[in-house]
């Protein structure tokens, strides 16, 4: 399993924690197009969260919003869900 798949991961440069729910990912790669410094696909075509400096907050949220199956969950460091809205 890659970073951020089925568990939250974070970057020191970001305000968010991100999780990709593997069972919901359909390899659309819209997250990669919107936030290429944050997301990539593994060898099985499942999105994961890259190491290093992520995209800015707007791009990360847009990447999550572009997912057709809502497979990406974003939280702030206090555990409040930022996307999708609850």
From TrEMBL:
Superkingdom of the organism of origin: Bacteria
UniProt protein name: Ferredoxin
